[in-house]
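Record 1 of the preview.
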Amino acid sequence: MRLGILDCDRLDPDLVDRFGPVYSDMFIKGFQPLAPELEFRVWSALDGELPEDLRECDAWLITGSRHDAYSDVPWIQALRDWIRRAHDADVKLAGVCFGHQVIAQALGGEVVKSTKG
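->
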């Protein structure tokens, strides 16, 4: 099985030595011991990289980010468009933290800043 990971941020410098510079490194390190047969392919959504071929991977994971899912910055707008295409194509898609929020926002849900910060 091939898992496509869409990186949506870089880690804080104090975490890089332990987890890697990007979120995908953290997920790959966590998944490999549990499922060594998994193959990974990574795109930097943060840098505007998104897969053209929705069938290139068997499933997709959208990582966390310090950014918010409801921002109208170009890379998040492009990611929301990609999510809608993926949903319409009935591909397997999961998100973690920011990832699940941007999926909800892209598919018509409402994501807002918490009043608690």
